[in-house]
């Protein structure tokens, strides 16, 4: 079974990857699996979402861990850490 997740990118990730898109994944996939699927495209996706890069994620507008399980129709957002000042 396949699920479709709506992706959104913010701040510097939006500048590099665009506003967002849809991503098809296997049922039971996690946020980490979605990030890996994007990285596997290579190029700017691999660079922007590389392991060790500080990237935060939110599932349906709530901060989440990479172990969070995705469901069909979820909104998954990626963004760099935000600092105040």
Could you please describe the fold and organization of this structure?
With 85 residues, the protein is an alpha+beta fold. The chain has one domain (2-79): Beta-grasp domain (Ubiquitin-like (UB roll), Roll), CATH 3.10.20. It has 3 helices and 5 strands; from the N terminus they run βαβααβββ. The longest helix is centred in the middle third of the chain and has 9 residues, at 31-39. 14% of the residues are buried. The mean pLDDT is 95. It comes from Pelomonas dachongensis. InterPro entries: Beta-grasp_dom_sf, MOCS2A, Mopterin_synth/thiamin_S_b, ThiS/MoaD-like. Belongs to the MoaD family. Keywords: Nucleotide-binding.
What's a concise summary of this model?
The protein has 85 residues and is of the alpha+beta class. The protein is 25% helix and 31% strand. It has a single domain (2-79), classed as Beta-grasp domain (Ubiquitin-like (UB roll), Roll).
């Amino acid at each position: 079974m396949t699920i479709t997740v709506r992706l959104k990118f913010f701040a510097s990730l939006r500048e590099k990857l665009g506003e967002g898109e849809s991503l098809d994944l296997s049922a039971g996939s996690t946020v980490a699996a979605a990030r890996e699927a994007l990285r596997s495209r290579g190029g700017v996706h691999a660079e922007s979402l590389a392991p060790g890069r500080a990237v935060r994620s939110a599932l349906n507008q709530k901060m989440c861990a990479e172990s969070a399980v995705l469901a069909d129709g979820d909104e998954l957002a990626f963004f760099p850490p935000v600092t105040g000042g």
